[in-house]
């Protein structure tokens, strides 16, 4: 039987609520953090039947980022639908607030409650009001990474250092939504990665370095490595080695080449080092791979 009006308890969820006395003690001991601070943080995957009604409003701001699925929010006289890759900041208010998941396509959301004695001034200065509604943005990997850092800090314990760390991250987290990476910059990054992969494919018989790849794009090695890993899920040199191993497999399968010749064809001077690399990635030696593919094609 389906459960209705659920506030939590979703399979795979993550959630931390900071006790009021912890927040009060933190503010007293660290007054510089009083502008705003985390009170609750959570992640609800595929949150079917998620529904919250706050009849007396909420003293916190609530940032909700919808990653997948759909949801809605009603605040005062306004109603908004919230779609994938949209976020909504509900301002601290005394108005009735209701929000929840779509019944057919329930949302997956990351969310944070934050407040402070100057939260009204913070909202006014940034134009955060009940009328603002959801905002679309490209996939916010930067914000998701910061959310994980905040959550991990708090799961490690609510001591003063972890609270300071998490609340410093909160500023970065909010900024990643209010000031997302420009779409033009994301397109430039994609173009850089596509061009680099094409270059790697053409240079699979050579030796290249991260510094060489970054210099071609007039980027620093650290920035190039970061955008490459973000796009492909692995460091540049790991990706290049994978390309080499794919080429080695093709040569071992289709050409009558010795292991030493295959090694030379993909830029390895030492056939023993090539064999170790091949076995590390393919879980079998080049000779056994060659014999296995021969038996398959026979």
Spell out the helices and strands N to C: EHEEEEEEEEHEHHHHHHHHH
Number of spatially distinct domains: 2
Kindly report the CATH topology of the largest domain.
Jelly Rolls
Helix content: 40-55%
Count of DSSP H/I helices: 11
- For the record, what is the CATH homologous superfamily label of the largest domain? Regulatory protein AraC
What is the CATH architecture assignment of the largest domain?
Sandwich
Can you tell me the residue ranges where pLDDT is under 50 for at least 5 consecutive residues? none
Beginning-to-end CA distance, first to last residue? 56 Å
| Backbone shape | elongated
User: Strand fraction band?
Assistant: 15-25%
What does this structure look like?
The chain is α+β, with helices and mostly antiparallel strands. The protein has two domains: about 15-180, Jelly Rolls (Sandwich); about 180-298, Arc Repressor Mutant, subunit A. Helix content is about 45%, strand content about 20%. The protein has eleven helices and ten strands. It has helices spanning about 20-30, 120-125, 140-155, 160-180, 185-200, 210-215, 220-230, 235-255, 260-265, 270-280, 285-295; strands at about 15, 35-45, 50-55, 60-70, 70-75, 80, 85-90, 95-100, 110-115, 135. Strands 1-2-9-4-7-10 form a six-stranded antiparallel beta sheet, covered by helices on one side. A hairpin with a 2-residue loop joins strand 5 and strand 6. Helix 3 (about 140-155) packs antiparallel against helix 4, helix 6 (about 210-215) packs across helix 7 and helix 9 (about 260-265) crosses helix 10. The termini are far apart. The relative contact order is 0.09. The model has no long low-confidence stretch (mean pLDDT about 90).
